[in-house]
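Run log // design_07
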């Protein structure tokens, strides 16, 4: 079992390195700016999972008043398939339920078969929608 708590600023470097190991960092998403944005909006829903003092997992949850959202779910490659991703998602789900969030949405990059299978196993289904986006601020 991992110990779960909210992100603290002292975690920043370890979290960014974890995301890099997990292949979640892209040029158009500066992870440091993403963390700063999250810490100014429902920062308490940005969770880290620890084994001892070592951060091995993260998830960024949020509730916009209509849907809950999940981003930056990551489990260290050397600690996968041990139930940590599921444990972290259960905690994110619990916190969103407390806020009376009726449904969680999330986006998975096309081709990320591992994540799609993981989410199916924990009760998510593919919605019949096309995901659209519009960038308002460039990180590049
Ligand atoms: C997706 C990810 C978070 C899963 O974390 P994890 O800790 O390995 O997952 P868990 O051990 O909690 O697995 C929960 C269930 O999903 C299944 N599962 C997890 N990864 C799987 C995979 N690659 N293929 C098939 N099933 C998988 C487990 O077998 C388990 O099933 P069960 O409950 O029926 O036994 C992890 O692989 C990861 O960090 N991937 C890289 C980052 C990423 O893609 N994040 C998602 C961005 S949208």
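design_07 sequence
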């Amino acid at each position: 079992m991992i110990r779960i708590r909210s992100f603290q600023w002292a975690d920043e470097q370890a979290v960014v390195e974890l995301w890099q190991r997990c292949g979640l960092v892209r040029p158009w998403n500066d992870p440091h700016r993403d963390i700063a944005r999250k810490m100014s909006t429902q920062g308490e829903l940005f969770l880290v999972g620890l084994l001892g003092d070592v951060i091995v997992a993260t998830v960024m949850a949020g509730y916009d008043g209509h849907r809950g959202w999940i981003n930056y779910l990551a489990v260290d490659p050397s600690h996968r398939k041990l139930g940590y991703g599921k444990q972290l998602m259960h905690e994110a789900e619990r916190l969103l339920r407390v806020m009376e969030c009726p449904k969680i949405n999330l986006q998975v990059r096309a081709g990320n078969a591992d994540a799609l299978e993981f989410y199916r196993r924990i009760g998510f289904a593919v919605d019949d929608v096309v995901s659209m986006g519009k960038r308002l601020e460039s990180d590049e």
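The pocket of coenzyme A is lined by residues 22, 24, 73-75, 80-86, 108, 112, 114-115, 117-118, 121 (CB under 6 Å).
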